[in-house]
């Protein structure tokens, strides 16, 4: 498992946390996603042969949040 941190703008509450973690959790290859609202980032454990960072970014953006690249 690899781990990456993705900076995300627009997350402010528990609903935001659930939406992002849920979207990432549905991706094949993502083992764990944990949002830190105070740091505006999500830490993701994933298998790089099954999912890309770009796919994770898209899943977050599909929920209405902005990934800081």
TrEMBL record:
SUPFAM superfamilies: HMA, heavy metal-associated domain (SSF55008). GO terms for cellular component: cytoplasm. It is found in: Cytoplasm. GO terms for molecular function: copper ion binding. InterPro entries: CopZ, Heavy-metal-associated_CS, HMA_Cu_ion-bd, HMA_dom, HMA_dom_sf, MerP/CopZ. Keywords: Chaperone, Copper, Cytoplasm, Metal-binding. Residues 2-68 form the HMA domain. The keyword Magnesium does not apply. It holds the Pfam family HMA. The keyword Cell division does not apply. NCBIfam families: chaper_CopZ_Bs, copper ion binding protein. Chaperone that serves for the intracellular sequestration and transport of Cu(+). Delivers Cu(+) to the copper-exporting P-type ATPase A (CopA). This is Copper chaperone CopZ.
